[in-house]
Amino acid sequence: MGKGERVNGRKGAGAYARLAISLSLFLPLALSLLLAGCDTLRVQRPLRPAPPPGPAEAGAVAPPLEQVWRYSAEGAFGPAPALVADGRVLVATRHGEVHLVDAASGDRIGKAGVGEAVEGTPVLLDGRLLVLPVAKGKYGLVAYDLVEGRRVWTRRGDPHVAGLLLAGDVLLAAAYDGTVRGLDPRTGTERWSLRPDTLARYFAAPVLLASGRAAVADDRGRVTALDPATGRVAWTADVGAPVHETPGAAGGLLIVPTTRGRLVALDAATGAEVWRHEAEDTGVLFASPTVAPGSGPGQAVLVGASDGVVRRLDAATGAVVWTRRFDGNVAAAPLVVGETVYVGTLDRRLVALDLATGAERWSTELEGRIKSASVVIGDVVLVFAEPHHVHAFRAVGAPGAGVASR
Amino acid sequence: MSPRRLARLAPAAVVLAGALAVAVPGAQAQYFGRNKIQYEHFDWHVLKTEHFDVYYYPEAQTLAEHGAHFAEEVYTELESRFDFSLNHRVPLIFYSSNLHFKQTNVTPGFIPDGVGGFFEFLKGRVVIPANGDLHRFRRVVRHELVHVFTYSKLTRVLRDHRVPVDRFLPLWFTEGLAEYWSGEPDFQHEMILRDAVASNFFVPLHDLDRIAGTYVMYKEGEAFCRFVAETYGEEKVLQLIEEAWRDVDFREVVAFVLGEDFDTTSDRWTAWVRAQYLPLLEDADVPTLVSDAVAARGVNMKPVVHVYPDSLSRPGGSRREVVYVANLGGYTNVYAMPVDADYRPTGEPEVLVRGERSEDFEAFHLFESRMDVSSDGLLAFVTKRGGGDVVHVYDLRARRHAGLYHFDGLVAVYSPTWSPDGRRLAFTGIDRGGFADLYVYDRDAERLRQLTHDPYDDRDPDWSPDGRRLVFSSDRTAAAGPETPAYNLFVYDLTTDAVAYVTYGRHHDLSPRWSPDGRYVVFASARDEANGKESAQDLYVADMTQPLVEEPPGVLAEADAAPGDLGALTDDGVVPGGALLAPVAALDPLATGEATADSTEAPVGRPVHRLTAFTSAAFDPVWTDDGRLVFTAFEDYRFTVRHLGADSLLAHPRATVYATLPAERAPWAFGRYAVTDSTQRVRYRRRYTLDVAQGGITQSTTGLGTGGGAVLAFSDVMGDDVIYVSAYSANTLDRSFLENLNVAVTRIHLGRRANFGYGVYRLAGQRYDRGDPEAPAGYPVFYEQVYGGIGLVSYPLSQFRRIELGTSLEWSRKDQFLRQQELETFLLSNSVALVHDNALYGMNGPIDGWRASVGAGYTTDVLYSNVSFYSLRADVRRYFRLLPGVTFASWGMAQVNVGRRARLNLLGGSWSLRGYPFYRLRGRGLWFTSHELRFPLVNAPSAWIPLLAPFGIASIRGAAFVDAAHLWNEGYDDVEYDPGSGFEIGRTLGSAGLGLRVNLFGAMVLRYDFGYRFANGLEWDAREPFSQFFFGWDF
């Protein structure tokens, strides 16, 4: 027995030695893998809000463009636009991550996981508190402090497919189950809630109207305008078709895209229908409209649709100024920069159109479909394309030429 | 159909692939299976459109241009519906007929009749035959492209969310969606749903997986999508795809999208369907209640009636038979049911023609082609024979096959009809261009004449009793349009070649037959109803004594009137006629291109009487000489042959309408893709793309080494050529990676009738080969290094029979390390085999028919003279279907290898000699026989024993068996102890017992046998009990 124990003991010592050697090899590897998978998102100081592009920037991103960098976000993008602030872009993905990328260089500043897919646009409060709508899972809302690099609060409950809206000091969140809530953005505490229609679902983000009210449209065609501070309903309107994409606000109008070939302009003050534009086919899905900067007569509304047509309408009357048909669907909101309209299509083309005439001025083909709204930061146009890349374009000849891929 | 369910793989391809992939030399492998034959050598071309590469052969160029138009037309529509654009070109492969389609190598499986097309995932190919009906062709193009969009969108959604893309939507949803978004519900949809509600076999949503792949599943899936769109909104249908990433369980996805739990949705859907159809069934007649059955067991279709002359009849009564095509759960045959004067069966049906087991009667077109019988008792019917259809003539009175007609240039032939004098046959023919036209064959002059020549679908001709006209059904009607299918009846005047309307309207008027006196034409028809749905398919009669009324301009014809005008019946059930002009032979300019004859006949219209109001559908009526209507009824998901009295139905029709013909009939034509640039058409050039790339590594836990390898497969778009590259190595302690490297490169060509393959290989490593005579019996392992090449040819004589030739040349060095021996050989092996298989398969294996393989081979060492032997073998298996579900199977086999270092034959185990270890018994010669009674224990346990369903148990069957065998080496009776098995050979061995077979998921059979083993000359006293558990199909 004793002999056997000694024999076993010697073997055991050998086994411990081998285990120690194995662990010494394995642990650094495991640690490095762990760290590689646990990127943090943290900035030194709050981000400054992005100024609207001035004439100088607008001219700087006039076509032709060339790609200056490409960034892999490792997950695809929802239809809503990314957040821009302080020369950086915050990209939330369907893989459940948020990336902060330097717009000038395409370098990643950091990334953080929120667990599940993000479809809508987050909001940023005070340049540091990022609130994300989460489309699946335990938490419908997640708030993240960019300076401290940690979650501040979460809110359990229904998923939020729609993007969020910050109206003053109230966070407006339209949950998938048809509930609209006014929350304290710093704590997530609910200030008010309402559920106009128990059968309705929200896909479209709330929109801030010129009057300070907010409007939200559901998939049963009901548009509700409310006071963000109290949740009191100012008016409701029925556009007669589901709304899946976020409406656009143009001065005193709310322009509501529907899934049944109808684009309806409502009076932002009363909810009365001002004009409507009907596509030839009632099955056409309108994308989120873009209202060109500026105001007054002739203000342009640009909208893409599943029939592959981009339409420029007169915001005041709904009259069609021009149309341009593409081979692929146009599911993303067009981007207007100066006198140029950038359109991404599902057949992978990025096209620059003349705002005045609709004439094509330049185009390029990317490797994947463009189904998310593009954004502009300074002299860089950022395009979000399949499978999971952010493409940065600058005007040809602008500083920073050459392609970097990450 | 979609990605359709193709049950079995074509054996020739599998044999070649299997043999070449593993590069096994010699003639040892035994394979059965039917042959998928490439009768045609298609000269493929490619038409490049904006979004598609359309593959076609020159004869079908026009068809391809129609198909390309249909595809581009629906592409734009689907792009919007799916809110998605395809970023790849979709290969569309068009065949002109089903018989060409069956030859495709895009899928290795056999394609049964009724498959309208499919989409496969590997290369994203869509394969569709036209088969004469361009409306149907258009619909299938749309259906399959819905699949393409669904698959592409789903893949994108899953990848966007980084969810594994092996997640599929349920088949009932994808097929239902493809039906729903490919067009309005057709009358078959209505037929199935009406019957499902009326007969109460409607399957609720949570059980639809149980009927996966059935026609009911397609139609219920379509109804579900329609329900979602109408109840929750069209957007929700697309959302079911867009949200598929949320859960692997589609029920959870449905619950998320529709906002209620799945069972609630299922209940609401069931109620919705019932609410749609129950009101329609209130006044409907149930076929089994209002008519009498002639043949009610199995699927019975296409009846004709023959009354024998008095000389061949029984004393005191005329002898008459109803002849029909039927499938009673096995092969499809032509049956004759003797009936009395009241059409009551007077005996059992007699099998006249045994189908589906010989080349002459390879396949009946059960749902497509009618039969006809001449006045002197000659039955004309169509079967597939080889690469095309033939018309058979069967003498009912002599009970013998009287001949067959094959028509050069016609691929498919449907619905032959005799002229009254029996000298001519008219039928529908489809040429290599894919269009269905009418033909007449003069038997005396042996001359074929084409009557119509256009893209319209002309079908089911019937010769008038006066011999001057053919009535037929066609979509050439002005009531149809390129996007709106409709069939009306027409007559073709054989004297003037004029075509005239018999009926007119947005109907499906099908299967016309003259009454014996020529006064009426009876037909089946489904019509638009006030609620927008198609009606049940009922029996109608057109009164041919009255002319078809041509409306003055501006007056609505029947087709143009609002649907539901039948609701405005007068008290006597008659809709008053409208306008009143009716030349009997009103020539239709659309149909003939000739001027319309003028006429000022009496102001009457043509009465069309609706005779029945069935719950579901009636097909193929025949008007007998004694005033009966014999027809096929669809009820309770069964097709039965039934009969009704024509006179009483005519006296009291359910309704009567006066067929009218609008004066202005706009001509229409199917859309056709305009080729603007000659570079859009190019000849097909074979290019190989990767199909499969798979690799793996294993690590031996005993420290003997590691193993790893990879297999690559490449093929061309047509699937005619496949190249396999495989490499693997087992890196053992004593040999290096390269020493054990195995590499094989093989090519298989399936594009011609003679399939061939060849390859080269290098095999090295430890081999376990119990059949090697040099290998130790107890532990037959040695190291071997082989360099060689192999070639195989498989030539199918018919679908059921083929010749296989094989040759190989290989150098080998075996290291018998246990015996310290080394053996070098340079072997040339040649083999030939004749294989027959017409067996019919059930869930666990063959249930009827027979299969056999006889072969011979010779293997010689051309360099070292170490090996020289010949091989002979014969294997015959016969299956007797005693009762439905009960089969007696007999198997006899003999094998002998004779000569120097002849290989050993193996036996034993659950797949051969039961009660003995698996393939442990070995000898140079053997005979073996097995007999087994197979019977059902529990069928469809999910219905009877729901507890078993979650375990995937599809059936439980029993078996009683007796096996016997004898193996020997030198002398037949020389008894030797075989250390490998632990038994003595040179004695007759056997076993007897019972078995249990459990089928899991319809895909795998577990086998458990127990009984007694007789190891000593079948002596009862020397028996030993045994039990064995294994898996595999019945022999």
In short:
The complex is a heterodimer of chains A (406) and B (1035). Chain A has 406 residues and is mostly beta strands.
Kindly describe this structure.
The complex is a heterodimer of chains A (406) and B (1035). Chain A is 10% helix and 39% strand. Chain A contains two helices and 33 strands. In chain A, a hairpin with a 5-residue loop joins strand 14 (207-208) and strand 15. Chain A is globular. Chain A starts with a helix and ends with a strand. The model of chain A is unreliable at 1-12 (pLDDT under 50). With 1035 residues, chain B is of the alpha+beta class. Chain B is 15% helix and 41% strand. Chain B has 14 helices and 54 strands. Chain B has a 17-stranded antiparallel sheet that branches. Chain B has a six-stranded mixed sheet with strand order 4-5-3-2-1-33. In chain B, helix 2 (61-82) packs across helix 4 and helix 6 (187-198) crosses helix 10 (262-281). The longest helix of chain B has 27 residues, at 134-160. Chain B is globular. Chain B starts with 10 loop residues before the first helix and ends with a strand. The A-B interface holds A 74-76, 94-95, 117, 136, 177, 199, 201, 219, 242, 244, 259-260, 281, 283-285, 306-308, 327-329, 331, 345-348, 368-369, 386-387 and B 50, 76, 79-81, 83-85, 87, 156, 159-162, 233-235, 245-246, 259.
